[in-house]
Every structure is written in C-alpha cells, then in structure tokens.
Amino acid sequence: MSAREDIMNRIKSALRDAPETPVVPRAYRRSSTMSDAQRLEQLVDRLVDYKANVFLTPAADVPAKLAELLAGTSSIVVPHGLPQEWLSALKDDAGAPAVHVDSPERRLTVAELDAVDAVVTGAATAVSETGTIMLDGSDDQGRRIISLVPDRHICLLHAADIVEVLPEAIARLEASRPQTWISGPSATSDIELERVEGVHGPRTLDVMILT
Amino acid sequence: MSNTFLGMPTLPVFGQGNINATESFPQAARRELANTQLRANLGHATHTIRDKRLKVVAELPDWEDMRNAGSAIKDATMANLPALLEQFEANFTARGGIIHWARDAQEANEIVTALIRETGETEVVKVKSMATQEIGLNEYLEEQGIAAYETDLAELIVQLDHDKPSHILVPAIHKNRSQVREIFLREMPVVDPNLTDEPARLAEAARKHLRKKFLSAKVAVSGANFGLADTGTLTVVESEGNGRMCLTLPETLITVMGIEKLLPTWSDLEVFMQLLPRSSTGERMNPYTSLWTGVTPGDGPQNVHLVMLDNGRTAALADEYGRTALNCIRCSACMNVCPVYERTGGHAYGSTYPGPIGAILSPLMTGIKSEENSSLPYASSLCGACFDACPVKINIPEILVHLRGEDVDSKRAKLKVPTQMDLMMKGAQWAFSSGSHLNLLEKGLPLGKLVAGRDKVIKKLPGIAGGWTQSRNIPAPPSQSFRQWWDKEHKPGAAVVPGTTINEGEQA
C-alpha cells in the first residue's frame, strides 16, 4: 500500500466516530465601518508604528516626489508594468539613478538585483487595521524577488485600494497569484523580545500613498 | 470522496523522532530550575510577550468571535480531513507542485534527502519549521552529507551554539544578548571582533553571515503555517525576510507540512491571519507573509515539492477527547502564559513541542507509554491560563486530565498488586463513606500534633505521600476537628450564643 493510501486509511479509521462538522460562526467584522479619511489615517499610524516612512502624495506630484526620494541613489529596479509617468521626472535629471526594468523578456539576475539600491513597485491592496500592504505579482509589482533583494523598497499605493479589515483584502486577492504581505520593514524580536528593524528583507520601507 | 470508513479499523500508529521526552519532566525540570540565568531570561521574555499580546488582543472588539470561528473552522477541518487533503492535493498538483506522503519521521527524512540528491546539491537553506525539527531533519541530512543552514535568527543562534530550541516561536528565548554575542564571536567564520551586544548589531551580523548563502542557494526547505484546500495555496508567516529569501530565490523548494495544517477555504485565512500574529508575537501583523500555489512560471522556485507528514497525527486524531490538540496553529501563546513553562523553560519538556500544548501533543502523537512522555501531562498546575490564551480554544487542561487518566490506566493494567495510591484511595473511600468512619480517624489528630513536635510542622511524610513534603512542610494538625468541636459545643445543655462560640485558641 502506498504511504498516501496508508495515511488516508489511518485518518478514516481515526474518524470512525464520525465527528460532526460544526457550522462556522462568522460574527467577526468582515467589512469596514470607517470613512476613507479614517482608513487612511489608521494605515499611516500603523505604518509609522512599524518604522516605515510614509508620504501622502497627490497623484500629480508622484514623479517629483519619487525623484526627491531617489536623489543620490545610483540605480533602481522597477517592474515592467510600473506606470511610466511615475518615473518621468527621473529622466530629465542628470544625477538621476539608472533604471533597470525587470520584464518577462529580460529578467534581472540575483547578482544584478543585489547591486541596485532600491526597488519601486505598486501594490495590490492594503489593510489599515493591521498596517499591511499586499503585493500579488501584478505587472506593476513584478516578481517576488525584485521587492526582496534590494535594501530599500519604495511602494506606491492608491488610497482607493486601502481597506480596513483583513477579510476585505482577502476577498479582493486572488489565491493563485504568488503573494507577499508586508507590514513594515524586515524585523526580528528574537533577542530578548526587543524589536529590531532590518534583517534580511529590505531594511528601509517607503510607502507613498497616492491621494 | 466519502468520509465514511468501511474498511477494518486499524490501531493508531504512533509517531517517532524528537517528540519524545527522554528524561521525566520532574527530573529535567529540577535541573533546569537550578539555572538562575535561564530563569531570569525566561521570566523577562515571557512577561514581555504576554503584555504585548494582551495589548493587541484588547484592540479588537471581535477577538472572541474570531476565536469561536477559528475553533469551529479547525474542528470542521479535522472532521473532513480526507476530503480536504484530496482537494488540496488536486489543486496544488494542478499548478505544478508535487506532493509526497510520509507515514513517519524516517520516511519524511528519506523523501527530503532523495529530493535534495536529485538536484545534485549538498547544501540547503532552511526556514524555521517545527515539522522538520520534529522529524530531526537537520541531523539526518548531516549524516547523509548534506549541510542544512537555519536562517531564522533565533534558529541560527541555537544551531551555531549546538543547542536545542526551547520555545516554538523564539527558539533562543533562553539566551540573553550577551550570550548571543559570545556565540557569534565564537562560531561565525567572519565576524567583526568589536561586535557589541546590542540586538540591532547582532541582527546585522546575522544578515552579513547569511547574505551570500541566500543569494547562492539552489535548494530550500521550509515548513508551512497553513495549506488552503480549495485553492492549493501554502503560507509561511515570518518576520525577518529569511523566509522570503528561501521561498523565492532557490530553484527547488521542499516544504514539509503536517496533514493537520489545512484550512478548508481561502477565506478562512481571514480568521487565522488575525489570530496568529496577535497571539504569537503580539503584533497586529507579522512583517512578512508569503503565499504560493504550486509553481508560478518565471517567479520563484520552479521545482516545488510538498511532503505531507503523518508521524502520529492520525493517532492523535483517533483520540476523540484529545484530537482538538491538532487544532494548534503553533502560536506559542500557551507557553508564554504558563506558570510552569515560565520557570522550567522549554528544554524540560524534552520534546520539540514544549509548554502546555507540548504536554498534550507529544504524548498524543507518541502514545502515553512512549519513553518518558507519560510524565508530561503532569507538568501543569491546571490553572487554565493556556485555555484562555489559546486562539483556537483548545481545552488544554481537560486534555491534560484525560491523559493523566490514560497514564494511570496504562500503568494499572501492567500491575497485579495494588499500588500505594490504590490503597490510599481505597482508604479514603472507606473514611468518607460514613460519619462514624471519619470520626474514628479524626480521633488520631492529636497523634499528628505529636509527630509535628515542638516546631509544629511535619517535614516528611512516608511513602508516596512524601512527594507532598518534598518541597513544603505541613503545619501541625489541630488537636480536634471541626466536627468534634461542633459536637462538644452543641451538646444538649451547652450554652450557645451565636457569634460567641468560637474559641480561637482551640482552632490552631
């Protein structure tokens, strides 16, 4: 008998008493009761608590703000689906960073990614109550590796994509896409339970919320 | 897909590996308690995390609703496990993942080794995983000539120190910062000799130490926090980014997951990803959660395996009073609030799973008669703090009592001669069966006073009652019992004025 059959038989034998399947009581909150402004305020509060840098930026000012944040940076990587206009202010400037585009046709190697200073991505959605930003590998967010290896992650999020509670985000996300949920920069509490930001993932997380 | 079992019932098949205590809990606890540094480290750590947990749990108005949902989802999972496993398998496989089944620790170790051999590699990076600790994978791989590098900071500390984890979430909870610094200076091949004991500096040293390993790793081994049956998705919850590194960079990913880790649907994650971070690290959300469903072309490992592990889980499932222990999501809230764990630490439990949950899970998986695991259900004062803290409402005290019963029954079955405990219980049965029996015994009270002597304490009781006086004295008994006093005071003719009858000198 295969291990699979063996284990299945063991389980069925263990459940000989046919335990009943309870109805799951879902009395917890599954939708938001907050206004847009309250959600935005809550998300900012949580992100700051996690030691992320947060910038509220009107959509029209994104190129200028991004150029400001990247001043002094020598190279960045962006996913191929990142809106081109966001990077428009970088091209005019002589001291602007070199922009590497990661695309299905030209995938950057680990070594190339390790050599860039920062990554700029979009985001799928964010949960204000927990301060969590979700990436799902869409074209404006790219492969998981590009938002992992560079030491700084600049993440652009539309205010309209902010939900309050986790169940709302789960309903928006598609399970089959590879996902990374990010709540602040990489951190550890392994030594005396003291939280330290910055271990293996990007040590700096900048979140620009487009208002 | 029917769950009705029509075949011959099989006897439970117990698990093996690092889920056995090799020394009885009282013996191990006595040694651990003597380590004052350990007790100081543990006291500080458990109290810190306990306070954090209470704070973030209090933030949510619907925490109890979430616990109720979590508990019901897990009960439903166990009741329908065969169908859910088949569903998970179909979905994970349809997306290019490969599933292997392991009856026990040995089989799981062999499968993982063969998969690594196929890649031609002799090194793997590892994400912290309870399942692989339970089966002793690192030790097995080492025997096979494969080096496994733990990448979680606490696991790294423990591995570098050739020590064992003592907590399921913070495996190096028993080490303080200066101890960690010493380990790094001693064991890391390249390390700044001026390394201080600031946690931030220590974390940076770990980053440097592991960076090259991550960037060049070809094979990673992980556990999984949840497997979602209706989508075939796996989840790893972590903080440092070492998990993301292992799950994203290598070409081959081998995940080892217990069969009980399933949740029926994708949306069930909305409950568990609220319960888990707040219960475990006391955070609103952990820094990183990774989710993957089989293989995503061009993104992450293209060679994705999953080993489904039994190793005694089906034996735990067969125990209808104990099976809810399988609902455990390994958050560690129970050990952080446990007055016993707080003092003895995790090593005293001997098993990979320490604390209150370990005291039930280990004997359920191995059988109560395995090695020293029968001592684990007694490693509790039954105070119930673990039950209150458990995010999926596992009634740990009740299962502890159930397993104590199993232990007593299994030992009694072996003996023909009644034990001291049997005789004592028989005696108690006789004494409490009638007032006259009790009266007769109470006449012996002055004798107790005599034994206590001038300092009015009894320091040592004979036989198994000696266990009680091992660490405490008994005050001398009064010269008469309450019942004797009452009789005297209420004799016909005795002047009784309510409220004035208590003769304090008599009631010592």
Automatic annotation (TrEMBL), chain A:
Task: Tell me the Gene3D superfamilies matching this sequence.
Answer: NagB/RpiA/CoA transferase-like (3.40.50.10420)
Q: Domain named LUD: which ranges?
A: 40-209
Where are the membrane-spanning stretches?
none
InterPro entries, from UniProt?
Answer: FTHF_cligase-like_sf, LUD_dom, NagB/RpiA_transferase-like
- According to UniProt, the name of this protein is Lactate utilization protein C
Q: Which organism is it from?
A: Arthrobacter glacialis
Lineage of the species this protein comes from: Bacteria, Bacillati, Actinomycetota, Actinomycetes, Micrococcales
UniProtKB/TrEMBL annotation, chain B:
Q: Where is the LUD domain?
A: 85-294
Keywords per UniProt: 4Fe-4S, Electron transport, Iron, Iron-sulfur, Metal-binding, Repeat, Transport
* Record-annotated Lactate utilization protein B C-terminal domain positions: 422-490
Q: Which PROSITE patterns match?
A: 4FE4S_FER_1
Query: Where in this chain does the record put each 4Fe-4S ferredoxin-type domain?
Result: 325-394
Whether Metal-binding counts among this entry's keywords is yes
Instruction: Give a single Pfam family match.
Output: LUD_dom
Q: Does the keyword Chloroplast apply?
A: no
The GO annotation for biological process reads:
lactate metabolic process
User: What is a single molecular function from GO for this protein?
Assistant: metal ion binding
Name the UniProt record assigns to this protein: Iron-sulfur cluster-binding protein
Q: Could you tell me which species this protein originates from?
A: Arthrobacter glacialis
